[in-house]
Amino acid sequence: MRAVAQGCYSEYFLFNEFDQAPAAEKQDGTPRTPPDTGLGSLFKYPGNSRKLRDRSKMRLWHEYLKDNGRNTTLVRQPDFHRLIRVGLPNLLRGEIWELSSGAFYLRLQKPKLYAETLAKHEGQHSIAIDEIEKDLNRSLPEYAGFQSEEGIGRLRRVLTAYSWTNAEVGYCQAMNIVVAALLIYLSEDQAFYVLSILCDRLLPGYYSITMYGTLLDQRVFESLVEKTMPIIWDHLVKNDVQLSVVSLPWFLSLYINSMPLIFAFRVLDVFFLEGPLCCSKSVLRSCASTARNSWTPPTTALSSPSSKHTLLDSAKARTQSQRILNTAPSRTSRHSWSSPSRSLTASLSTQSPLSAANTRLLSWTTSSHLRREPLSAISDLRARN
Question: Cα 280 to the chain's mean position, in Å?
């Protein structure tokens, strides 16, 4: 347990007070070195840390971990969930992902599994390894870490170790994207255990041969869009567009390839906290935001009956879209993509009934700290503490 805990950044982070410079040595005179916090510590983390208020978030987490324990002794108070929704700081994001997903406790049970697997199968080849080699250079090529041998080597080792550990799954496309994102904030050991939890417990069947988990979620998602966004659904049916073909990469890559990385990591923050229901919530919000932003008023004059009819139909569709999708106010914040849509759930009460599971899926939290800017949420938490 001590060896696993020493690899957590919280041990290094809480050794001194927040405003003090990190001590170069421990009390027994041995040198102190910060643990591996992923490729971001070598190649820079995505986003602007000042704009993301990273230091303010670190201060709040220092206070929380000091009062409520860390890694093996962490107690999840209500503020734990609030701090995650505000946005995790770069240096602690990997450890919180590991704790929230449960991968940390798997690493406690089998701390040497990753190293032993690599040593046992060193020099061996398989079909999965050949597929891995084909996709290594396609894994987040826009990030500098995966344009170097250091990042590619880490990605190769983690995917190879998991393919030997779970021979039934081996390797599936899109796993390289997910692991590449994890390695920006996690060490190789941590990324291996998080990948194991992801494929075996959080998203069972997503990366299997039949991909039954993904196909099931596709059917659920299509049903939700048909019942909650009829205008979008009718448009897709009219143009013979299969929604499952469009949304399949979203689910498999956990939106990492579907939006800027700083936003995708916010989705992962909540995903590891709340579980797979976060995926469907994010897709519905993306569809609602796209429908709001893509509508443009017609410019055709009302000179003919046909143009007048078109204009009236467009206005009617716009009114219905506003009622169903809960259009944002005129002053749109920078983080409006994540604002909850309460009217979406409310509109279901007047339409055909859904199962209890789907109703819970759409009834996500609408508390005020999610609707405000991250900085104001941090200030409120600091004032309360």
Answer: 12
